[in-house]
Every structure is written in structure tokens, then in C-alpha cells.
């Protein structure tokens, strides 16, 4: 994408590649952020949701009589009241091997016939206070006839398994296949060696710092819904709500303020939002609903939950011939927008990674179970794909008696092979995969490991090291707004449809604009989170924000300069061709006559008799059209210590070298990497979601579900090894999900290495202390 950059070099302390401090932090660390639950409207009511305590059962009735007579109760709504709204669906046009789309696609806001998981919402109680609503919710009587439950995908598709939907045989929402079966079979038949693994991609509970909350209102004068809600993009949220509520999009306004984390979960339309909007229209009063943490455990979409049978075929020299994946994907009780895509396309495409892989074949069974619905979770198939490949490589190296580092190198796609088209059609435009691996090994002091292992053994500890090389396919940058607005006080506002829910957009976006137009960083504002301000917006997700908004800002800046050149020609009384822009000012070439950009904007705003050919404003409303995905990649190297007496695993060294292309703000990128790595460590070592055979969640609080804490964070070494993306003007690649992609395989490869002396050759996540204790001390079992 050959879009020229503006001819300006910003001040060194804010230029692209520097790390000015995040401008939003003072507000956040002082507790002055405004999250959804912080907002209150005059006359608002409060809502509480009644949920199913059964994982599966016939819903014979809901008796609200006693609850309606409780003090303060205004109304109670059930599935019957919401039945006329459109169902919540997955919009993705995925086809199964039978040529049909997703079966069982379409969820009623609140069920009428059956309950399908513990936490299924059944009624919305609205009262004058939250306490009154909660008291009434506790005496809503549910007549549920329990049915047998099924909680994992393999059991769900077995003959005779309990069926969640009468019209979905064997609970199969999608039987997916992609690949060339004959070619892959031929490659496996000719292989000198085949490595096979069963890999469990364990279910995780999202646990964003801010629970879900929403504040609905109804504008009677304009016949319009207004929803304040935590989201990953208000434009998409508005479109989804309008579709479900069966109204034009201009009849819905969505507002999002600060968001305390999402990781994919808050991107979706949830049933509670539909009920809330219905109630606020019926009652003509604002209504607030805030999830409790306990409810979040059973009402938020959860992540991952796949079982993968993976095979890698290699020739006698160790070169990859083909990869075969057979996946059982647990969708939970209902289809949400993303999991079928994650478990089919995303895992498969990312499994190719940085390696020359001639053939890949994938079979995926997506099954309904009586568990919380699965949604997008940080990486959404990208970490899983890379984890599969890296575990296969380490296992193949051990089985073949080869060095795992050398096995990677001989299969790397080389720089002179770029652009490289994968067997699934993606085209890698840039990268130095062997060079990056070498860089990471040097920084990690790979050669000095044996000395560190000996020191650990002297203390009675087991030590291991592991490589996790990865490549991610980011989401393509969708149509994205790049509005630039010159304010009366001299500030300049960027308007964009992406949304910051923890990433830190304000500073890097301002750095891009400052680099383009020379505006001081402290004079740049960021407008996100209001659909009334937007004409387009792809939201934030899939590590695409800087490609989308960054490119939009570059393109909009060029429009400002073009418009400003014409305006400056009038103000400076010169020909437009003689006007140049640099250093935040327009000047007549070869003279000292100039006018600053902000001053010119003020002049136009205050002028009343401009000629027809002169722009009346420098404000720009611009929409960047879709641009291609990028391919961030890297190599993470973890070292772990295992205490065989307790089974406790500690990540004691962690090195990562990443290729994120042009890095706008290294400090923010490092923060994203640190957070992603720690989430990967959580899934690998700590986070265990357990649902019993009846569908009851056994890990429903932080007493039972272990999140990583500060003590679990290793000392980080982070290095850049960039190659510049050729598909966007800034040369950037996404970074938000890469930490998970590198940490899952590096930590688990290191753990298997540490336990190799105990005869361990493969280990599934989560590697909890009890599991490790049994493996490290076999005599104790």
C-alpha cells in the first residue's frame, strides 16, 4: 500500500519509535476513570437477572407472582416478553463438509422451551433499587424438569448423548473439513517419521477486571434506544443491537467509556442487553444492570476448549511434509459469533506459522454442550495454532534424536522466499524467521543453560528450557474512520471507530498524528466510543487497531494537508503550487512567509467571506478502506524451575524477540507483550475450569479458579527484531495477542524438558502443582 507519509518529522520525544508516557494513565491510576457502572441517570431503575441453576432441563414455567408483589419491584420480563425480537446469531458464512452452514444458529434472548447451561438467563427483575431487585429475583419460582447433561465435545457427538436441540443431530453445529485428503495421505505414506500428539486446549474463564454492565435508556422524543455498555467497538455493537431489536441503526446509540478489560468477551451482543433495552422502552425510564463476579463466572463467554489430535509428517532430513489436525471444538450451549471460525480457520491458518509446510489438512467437529457458551478470547485461535506446531516440533525432535532448534531452522521460510504463499493462500510479505530465532537465543544465553540447570539441580530443583516461535495472522483492517477535528481551544481531536479497552490507544495514535502534522502531543485528543460521532468503525480485536486507525490517520492527515495548502494559498496570497507544508506550518516556498496549521484552522473558522475555491474548514471525515492482514512473529524462550516436593512450577527466565514491524511506542508494545505472556502462563500452569458431569461449574470463584498474580510474572527481556510490513504506510504489524502465542508453547516446552528426566514426553495444560507433583514423584502415586 503505497501511501506517502506527510513531509514532517515530529519532536524527538514524541516521534514514532519513542515512548512518551501514556496520557490516559493519570486519570486511571487516580481512580477517576468512568466505567459503565459509574454512570447514573436521573430516575434510573435497577435490574437483576434470574439464571438457571440446572445445566439442562425443560422449562415448564416461571412463576413471578410473589416476586412482582415485593417492595420496589416495577416489572419482571421473561422469554415470552422478548420472543418477538430477532435471535442472536453468528454472522459468519462458514460451511461444513456437507455444504451447509451452522446448525442451531439463532439464540433467543431468554429461553422459553429449555435451559441449556448453568447461568442461562431466564428473567429480568426491575426495581427501584438493586437490593430490591435482588431480593425479588431470589423468589422467582422456576419450574425446570432436569434432563441429563453433556459437558465435553467428544461425549456430545456420541450416539445416544443428551441432545440440546431437537433439530441438531448429535449436537453437531458444524462438521468442517479443509485440505487435500489425497495429497496429505500421500505425504504421510511417504514420511520417514510421523509425530502424533493429543493436545488439550483447556477452557478458561475470561475474568476481565470490570464485570459486564449496561445502562439502557429510551429517548421517547426521537424513538431511539441509548445503551451505555462496555464494548470493543460501538459501531459494531450498534449494528448488532439494531438487528436484534428490529430497528434501523439510527434508532440506536451506543456509548462506551472506559473499559476494564475484555480480551474478546465484550465484543458480542449478550441476552441481557436485549432484555434491558426492551424494559427501558416499556417503562420509559433508564435501567442499570451490573453483573456480579459470581454471575460473571457463569454468564460471560468463556475461552478456548478444544481437543486436537495433531500429526506432523517429516522426511528423513527432518523437513516437514504435511500437518494433519482433527479437532473437537466445544461451543458451549449456544452459538456466539466467533468460536466456529476460531476452531476451524484461525487455528489452522496460524498452525503453519513460520515454517515451510507444503500441506495441511483439518477436520473439525464443533459441538454443543451444556456449558457456558464459548467466545473469542485473547488470540482467538492464534495461540492455539502456534502451540500445536511448536509442541509437534519439540516432540518430533526428541523422537528423531534431533536438536529442536536446528529442526526449526531447516524448516524456516527464508527471506529470499518472500513474499511466500502458504498452502491456505495467505501471503507473508516480510520476516526474518531464522535471524529472529538466533537473536532470541543470544539474548536468552542459550549456551549458558547447562550451568543454570546444574545450579538448580544442586538445590533439588528440575530446570527446563523451551522455545516458542510463532507467527500470527492479524484480522484484516476493516473500514475505519480517521476523523480529524480542529477545536476552538486549539486542540485537535482524532475520531476513530477502534476502541481502547486497555491497550493504550491515545498515545500511539497521537504520535502518528503528531508525526504527520507536527501537532504537540499534549494538544491531541482521542474520540472513541460514541456512535453519533462515527461514520465507520471496525472496533478493536484481532490485533488490527494500529493498522486500521494508524493508516486512517495517515490518510486523513494527507487530506488535511491538501485542504490546508489550498486554504493557505488564499490566506498567504500565493498560488497553491507554491505552498509547502513542514514543521506544522504552511509556507510559501523560498520565503519566510508562513501560517501555522492550527492558526489556519482558526482563520478559516472565523472567516465569513471565503472565495468558493477556498476550503471553509480543515476538519476531515475520512474512512480508510480495508487493508490486508499483517504477520507479526517472534520467538519466546522460557526457562522454568520445578520443585518436585510440591509440584510448583516457576517461570524463572523469559526472553522474547518480536517482529512487530514499525513500533510506534515501544513501552506500550512491551506492556502488551507482558500482559499476553502472563495470560499464557495462566492458561499453561494455573487456570483450570472444571465442570462436573451434571454441568455444574466447580471452579466458580477465585477460591477455586487460580489467576496468575504478580509473583507469577517472570523477569522479562524483550527485544525488537523488526522487518517492515509492506501492506500499510506505517509498516506496522499487530502486537496485542502475540504474548499468548509465544508463551503457551515456550512454557510448556520448557516444562516437558524439565520433566524429561522423569520420563515425561508430553503434558497437557494446565500443568497444576498436583499434576506436576505426581509426575515428578512417581513413587508417591
Describe this structure in words.
This protein is of the alpha+beta class and 781 residues long. Among the domains are: 25-33 and 477-624, Aldehyde oxidase/xanthine dehydrogenase, molybdopterin binding domain (Aldehyde Oxidoreductase, domain 4, 2-Layer Sandwich); 207-299, Aldehyde oxidase/xanthine dehydrogenase, molybdopterin binding domain (Aldehyde Oxidoreductase, domain 4), CATH 3.30.365.10; 427-474 and 630-780, Aldehyde Oxidoreductase, domain 4, CATH 3.30.365. It is 29% helix and 22% strand. The chain contains 20 helices and 29 strands. It has a seven-stranded mixed β-sheet with strand order 3-5-1-12-9-10-11, sandwiched between helices. α15 (506-517) runs parallel beside α16, α16 crosses α17 (597-606) and α18 packs across α19 (738-754). It is globular, with a radius of gyration of 28 Å. 53% of the residues are buried.
